[in-house]
Amino acid sequence: MREQVLSSGVEETQPTPALRVAVVGLGWWGRIIVPLLKGSDKLRVVKGVDPTPAGAEFAAAQEIPYSASFEETLDDPDVQGVVLCTPHTLHADQIVAAASAKKHVFCEKPLSLNHADVVRAVAACTRNEVALAVGHEKRFEPPIQELTRLAKAGELGTLLQIEANFSQDKFLSLTEDNWRMSEKEAPAGPMTATGIHLLDLSIGLLGPAHQVYARVRQLGSRLVNGDTLGILVTHKSGANSLISAVLATPFDGRFALYGNKGWVEVRDKAHPESPQGWTLTRSHRGSEKKSFEYPPAQAVLANLEAFADAALKRAPYPVPQDQMIANVSALEAVFRSVKSGTVETVEN
After folding, report:
1. pLDDT class for 14, splitting at 50, 70, 90?
2. 42 — phi, psi (to 5°)?
3. Is 306 in contact with 132 (CB distance < 8 Å)?
4. List of domains in the chain
């Protein structure tokens, strides 16, 4: 992107400033983020951070400066922000440390695993006047944005219920010692991998959750932390969200929103990591059902660039912080419900 400026009556072009970031955590997702950002005019990777030899090798292959130390990175004046692709239990403390060092923060989901930590992390960013963004790229998918527009414009009427599924089998190839398979990092099996995206969208559309009932089981894989998850969320508005997430089946993605005047469904054609587009179907009372095809779009990159725009004060980040907190609060209730086997009330 380039901006037009006038100097002595002559039009000139100057490059839009890029946010200089360190990508922290060079595992599976970090290795997707680094090359993705090389195609952006709004962000520039100035450091890769990872404590492992494999991380150092990846940084060298990508020809980016490397550090094994997160703390050292926060002391680097050339780093304006961090992109956290680290285990979930590290997020809250890393966000607080980065914010205290006046670094803007993009954190992969979830921001934390409990209500108290997410409040602490958000407060640190607010106090230090740094931008905070979260890796909920589904909000940036064009058909989801159209669904959201229809809902907010009142075209669906009173919002009644969401039915959503995000399933995949990518984790079947992970080794048993991978942190994504641990009880500590993923207390409800598929929840922190895929289900949290649907919970985030549900809260964005229907408002804060009031109660949740969740069940997870190991039914079709060696994933001992569970591969099949079902959740019923009751929102404070009275509406419901029915969320399904499975880690033992080929990819499927669906998000449907029902109102008393009509409904909209978005279906993914492929995993968001390698998008192939979407089909949006909408039905309004008194009209025929219609379907629309959407081409592939880089929603992950769009989210990261929205973070850069917020950090450099070009535009507000489109996910409100109260919704970030509400999502983690509901997430914690899901964890409690899986353990108790009962309905759990959300702390808000």
Report:
1. low
2. -100, -15
3. no
4. 2-135 (3.40.50.720), 138-297+318-345 (3.30.360.10)
pTM over 0.90: yes
pLDDT tops 50 at residue 4:
no
| pLDDT class of 275 with cuts at 50, 70, 90 | confident
Dist CA 95 CA 106 (whole Å): 9
Euclidean distance between CA atoms 209 and 190, whole angstroms: 19
User: Mean pLDDT throughout 318-325?
Assistant: 98
The answer to whether residues 80 and 103 touch, using CB atoms and an 8 Å cutoff, is yes
- Look at residue 7 and tell me whether its pLDDT is greater than 50: no
Find all residues with CB under 8 Å of 102, minimum gap 6, and list them: 128, 130
The residues pairing with 14 across neighbouring beta strands, listed in sequence order, are: 3
Residue among 109, 119, 118 nearest 186 (CA) = 109
- Of the candidates 52, 13, 54, 18, which has an alpha carbon nearest to the alpha carbon of residue 37? 18
Residue 10 token pair: 């002559």
